[in-house]
Design a protein that fits this description.
Blueprint lengths: L36 H4 L5 H8 L5 E5 L5 H14 L8 E5 L2 H13 L6 E4 H16 L6 E2 L4 H10 L6 H16 L7 H8 L7 H18 L1 E2 L1 H14 L1 H10 L2 E4 L7 H11 L5 E5 L14 H4 L1 H4 L4 E5 L1 E2 L4 H12 L4 H4 L5 E2 L8 E7 H17 L7 E5 L5 H10 L4 E2 L10 H16 L12 H9 L14 H22 L5 H14 L8 E5 L8 E6 L15 H15 L2 E12 L36 E3 L11 E2 L18 H6 L11 H18 L9 H10 L4 H5 L6 H15 L4 H11 L1
Parallel strand pairs: 1-7, 1-8, 2-3, 2-6, 4-5, 6-7, 9-10, 11-16, 12-14, 12-15, 13-14, 15-16
Antiparallel strand pairs: 8-17, 17-18
Helix pairs in contact: 2-3, 4-22, 5-10, 6-9, 10-11, 10-12, 15-23, 17-18, 19-22, 20-21, 25-26, 25-29
Length: 757
Amino acid sequence: MRPPCGQLPRPSPATWQHGGVTAATHFPLFPQVPESADAVLDGLDPEQREVATALHGPVCVLAGAGTGKTRAITHRIAYGVRAGILQPTSVLAVTFTNRAAGEMRGRLRQLGASGVQARTFHSAALRQLQYFWPKAVGGDLPRLLERKVQLVAEAAARCRIRLDRNELRDVTSEIEWAKVTQTVPADYPAAVAKTQRDAPRDPAEISQIYATYEQLKRDRSVIDFEDVLLLTVAILQDRHDIADHVRRQYQHFVVDEYQDVSPLQQRLLDLWLGDRDNLCVVGDASQTIYSFTGATPDHLLNFRTRHPGATVVKLVRDYRSTPQVVHLANGLLGQARGRAAEHRLELISQRDPGPEPAYTEYADEPAEAEGTARRIRDLIAAGVPAGEIAVLYRVNSQSEVYEQALADAGVPYQLRGAERFFERAEVREAGVALRGAARAGSNDSLLDDAEGLPAEVRAVLSTKGWTPEPPAGSGAVRDRWESLAALVRLAEDFERAKPGATLSDLVAELDERAAAQHAPTVQGVTLASLHSAKGLEWDAVFLVGLTEGMMPIAYARTDEQIEEERRLLYVGVTRARLHLMLSWSLSRSPGGRAGRRPSRFLNGLRPGSAALGARRGAAATTGGIERGHQSQGQGPVTRRGRRGPARCRVCGRTLTDAGEMKLMRCDDCPSDMDEALYERLRDWRAVRAREIGQPAYCVFTDKTLMAIAEAVPGSEGELAGISGVGVRKLDRFGTAVLAICAGGTVDEVLGEAADES
């Protein structure tokens, strides 16, 4: 119940200012589907709310690590769908990994916005290519080459060029880079020279291998993953009828991790869009770590130049990490240089204080691994789940010594990613067994003594290898048990969220999760490279091997390459919620020469180290909202995000309801609204809604009209500051609304509009 007017309520943990905004890993497993469109906005902070309600026109979201960007864009899509503004089938959300796309689909389903396409660039392009190929080219689509390494090896042999295993992998990566940057074989040497790329072989040799590889593909009628994008681009460019078909299907686009877009992906996106501007992009230039694959932050950094009318929203409230972790992350980028550094975001932690990051120096690599394993064992003993701990390193070859150390310490670990969970043999077998038990019901003797859903699941999975206690040691047996244990925990969470749920209900939930690749958490310390950790987070993170030559890596020579290494370490730091440990060793093996030095990136940050003189990077950008509307030669209308909670301007109570936040007062607090103005606005809205053939709320909602009638704006800037008045509505209706607020009658305003048209 609401307290009497003037009496502040007790804080609710569900509101954004009390930490209700959480990042990906802490998203509730089985939340209640919001009852209405406005309920979708509950718990969003002011900047996230701006993202969610800016449904038209170009929108650029600059989102720092841990600021809830996925939450903001999924709520944006869900709000638009639930409000009837966006048709689910007209929205295409694209990202870069199957795991991220699966997470997005899972969240949209939980928000009541099923039917929205959330895919990777390659997945979306492949579907279109398969559908349109018979019409555009004829016949069947060539077979997709799953792995190109073998064909590259054959191409090198035909060129009489010998490649060892590492060179083969590197040359394959070079071919991929050339294709996503739209570089043909003949132009590859010049492109390498222009970009100062460190080619693994003579560029002329790679050019020759690349050309032969392309010929082999044509001879055998196969295509690779890069061809999927290239061919889709070619069809959309050449066949305007097919491009029009795609554009009729998809009206609204959302692109996550936009800093990682390659030139080829940007070209495809441009063709999808055509001459429209219903595009929302989300990214952070400080997390650009894939330039070696062709990714570039230029598209993100140039977005406002390409779209002058764009609304830019900056998310800087970090809900993931403690102030201590955030302070280190900000300090790490404080020394950064280059264009990405000029746009860095200064994060502001929203969490309670935690322990300081720990820095540890070891004599050698085995000692570092053993010390890390001991500290992990201590954390687990203190109550931190193994699944909430990660060891991150620069290159995969570093993992072996940590695998051995964790196994010796009896600590479970995993190297696999959650996106492959439903493809594991034991998970497929478990699904078949659970489906069979659900069909058999009370006729299944396994369930005779099982009371409740979790007990039934435990009984069924006990036949597949699950036991109450994990098996000793590591390896395949432990991996299998961890997968089954994850299903048991999922059943327990499902039963708590939906009391009375049956085995059939759980099977249906598993089917939906498998389709969305929305995997449960597998318990076990994660061992991963820094690159593969992007987009993930843990309670405790160990950053290991932080020495010169490894961080930054030895082959990073140019200033641009060094800065990308710094950003890579920044990504690692911002994966930690609470505990952060950084370590390095002085030699490779016991008794070796202690000639290593800690990473230069830690200078001035770790205790006892000196800062890098007076060198200082660019000033950080603060959070807020910049509207791109241009008015009579004035600059963009800018509104900085509020630092504190939204409060009623009458009684001071914290506001969380979407409608109340539009009015900036409680519903039952006294209103100073101009009643006559409100009625004129309603009459005008009714006429305009009939003229454009849309419901009245698509012009402005009642709450927005009330807010206008209370504020009585006298300029476009004042009108733009009212929640619910976006850039598009300001362009379309702003002149009329301001005329009515200035005393004009509905007939006069409508008459002037008719004369102008």
